[in-house]
């Protein structure tokens, strides 16, 4: 099902046509669906490769960021990250840039793949600390690296408040939206973030974390790569159980004000996810609602 109004349909036939045209040596390899996020459709290619195709023209820029910056960032990071191996170009079969990366084995973070959630939270903190300490390599908060999650809460108030209103209509009988609104409004009164800009992954949710034997081994999907303030980077920690959250915060030493802003980012992005994807992506809506439950549990 399409998630966006301007989405470009993709199927195996499209991927085969692209490979035949641009990388014929790969065209006969086995091709299997490998998941679909809000930004990309993915196919595993053979045993060692992954094809990623943006859903819309707006999302194509994220692949270019990965191709440009991941080879330079990878040596600075403690866990494996995607390795671009081919930058596909627009063609008759598909009018946008696309990408081929190395396949990274591992399990997504979820109940059943992780037993020690505190250890996972500490592992994630190691990654975040190293990423935020990494040299900017000349990058600045401009153009594709100026994503909203690296800035202030205030410019997002209009659409996040509208999303919270929509949540009241859709899930208000099951969710304490009044408390979510209060947490959002309280965060808007906090001091603005300060300090130097850092690299931000931008979307450290469980589906972008790969584990082996329950411990973090890789971080994937750098399409949200941004330079900015780190508050929103911490937001996906509310997608994980409380022991992971506590261990993560303790390991990073996140202060109360930064934590409150991070929580506001967490609830704002989750509320907008419920609103935007309500009719098209129920699995993602469920993830967003779980995040809201965790936020309310903490607030209580």
TrEMBL record:
Gene Ontology MF, one: kinase activity
Pfam families (alphabetical): APH
Signal sequence interval, chain numbering: none
InterPro entries, alphabetized: AGP_Transferase, Aminoglycoside_PTrfase, Kinase-like_dom_sf
Domain Aminoglycoside phosphotransferase: 31-265
Key words of the record: Kinase, Transferase
Protein name in the entry: Aminoglycoside phosphotransferase family protein
């Amino acid at each position: 099902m399409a998630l966006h109004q301007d989405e470009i349909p993709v199927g195996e036939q499209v991927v085969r046509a692209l490979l035949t045209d641009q990388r014929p040596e790969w065209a006969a390899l086995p091709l299997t669906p490998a998941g679909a996020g809000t930004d990309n459709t993915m196919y595993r290619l053979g045993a060692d490769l992954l094809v990623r195709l943006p859903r819309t023209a707006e999302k194509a820029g994220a692949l270019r960021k990965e191709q440009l910056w991941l080879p330079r960032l990878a040596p600075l990071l403690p866990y494996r990250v995607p390795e671009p191996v081919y930058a596909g170009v627009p063609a008759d079969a598909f009018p946008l840039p696309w990408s081929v990366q190395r396949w990274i084995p591992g399990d997504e973070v979820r109940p059943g793949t992780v037993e020690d959630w505190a250890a996972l939270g500490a592992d994630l903190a190691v990654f975040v600390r190293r990423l935020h300490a990494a040299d900017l390599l000349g990058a600045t908060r401009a153009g594709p690296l100026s994503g909203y999650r690296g800035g202030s809460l205030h410019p997002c108030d209009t659409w996040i408040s509208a999303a919270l209103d929509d949540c009241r209509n859709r899930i208000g009988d099951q969710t304490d939206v009044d408390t979510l609104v209060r947490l959002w409004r309280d965060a808007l009164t906090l001091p603005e973030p300060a300090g130097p800009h850092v690299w931000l992954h931008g979307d450290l949710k469980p589906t972008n974390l790969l584990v082996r034997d329950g411990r973090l081994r890789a971080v994937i999907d750098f399409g949200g790569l941004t330079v900015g303030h780190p508050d929103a980077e911490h937001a996906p920690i509310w997608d994980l159980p409380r022991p992971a959250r506590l261990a993560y915060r303790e390991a990073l030493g996140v202060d109360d004000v930064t934590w409150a802003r991070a929580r506001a980012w967490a609830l704002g992005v989750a509320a907008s996810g419920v609103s935007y994807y309500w009719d098209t992506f129920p699995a993602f809506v469920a993830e967003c609602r779980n995040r809201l439950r965790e936020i309310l549990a903490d607030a209580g």
